[in-house]
Amino acid sequence: MANFYSVLLTLVTLAAGLIWLFDARVNKPKRLARIAAEQQRLDQQLDEAARQRLAPQGGVAEFAQSVFPILLVILLLRSFVYEPFRIPSASMMPTMLAGDFILVEKFSYSLRDPLWRTELARTGTPKRGDIAVFKYPPQDQVDFIKRIIGVPGDRIIYRNKTIYLEPVCVADQSECPQQLEVIARDVAASDSIDFNGASPLLRYREQLGEVSHEILIDPRAVPRERFYYQQTDRRTQVDEWIVPEGHYFFMGDNRDNSEDSRFWGFVPEQNLVGRAVFIWMSFEMDRPASSVLPQWLPTGVRWHRLGSVE
């Protein structure tokens, strides 16, 4: 469950806060009254050690008082500023690799409460080329990460492993050509060769608006148009989509190894979690099956991958 940790952290923080509040409002006045009565009986002030012996704070309340501020800061940071995510698959290669740990900027598009994800404030607009984490529409308890290819109103065609884009005409645009543009791409130089099984992948540098990024194409992969998502409300070709209002079209950079909007449709705006901005750790996960050590144990650290993402 993608939202499990958010819910758990919220509930634990709330519980610690309520315990601390109850102790401060109910138990603490009783402890102070007991100490005051004893000081009046003895006609002298008690030192701190004596006060603790006479009226000690309960262990649970003391623990809640200690951890509540820490939990609250973590909750606020995780809910509204940055949240860590792990890349589990190869669908965003070569931009992101399985074993990358990234920070997602939660305030890039909007601020939402951590439980019901109700929008509290709009803070930005998703743009073509953004790498974003979102709730997988068919199963919104699962987090996905892909690249935004189309924004509301865009017409997109993916044919012969090439993207054709007719951008939406915005209000402040002086001229609106209303024609398909081929998303430019050139062969990208690389010191390594990527594979899908035994099939070598071709690496290209693609220009999506102002964003330049690398993609992978498997020349041996068979087209899967018969599995493409079809819009029932529009007369479009099998490999054509028009992004509806309030939705976005996502694709993985590893184009022939990515289950994305081509297959299950558009992502509603309310499903957006945030924009991926930084790789803070990257582990190699290439332990052979014959190893006596568990497969989840990293085999090394890819230090060269740490930094911002395209």
Note the topology.
Layout: H1 4-42, H2 48-54, H3 59-80, E1 82-86, E2 100-105, E3 110-112, E4 119-122, E5 131-135, E6 143-150, E7 155-159, E8 162-166, E9 181-182, E10 185-187, E11 195-196, E12 199-200, E13 202-208, E14 211-217, E15 240-242, E16 247-251, H4 261-264, E17 267-268, E18 272-284, E19 300-301, E20 307-308
Antiparallel strand pairs: 1-2, 2-18, 3-4, 5-6, 5-18, 6-16, 7-8, 7-15, 8-9, 10-13, 11-12, 13-14, 16-17, 18-19, 18-20
Helix pairs in contact: 1-3
Report on this structure:
The chain is α+β, with helices and mostly antiparallel strands and 310 residues long. Helix content is 23%, strand content 29%. The protein has helices at 4-42, 48-54, 59-80, 261-264, and strands at residues 82-86, 100-105, 110-112, 119-122, 131-135, 143-150, 155-159, 162-166, 181-182, 185-187, 195-196, 199-200, 202-208, 211-217, 240-242, 247-251, 267-268, 272-284, 300-301, 307-308. Helix 1 packs antiparallel against helix 3 (59-80). The mean pLDDT is 92.
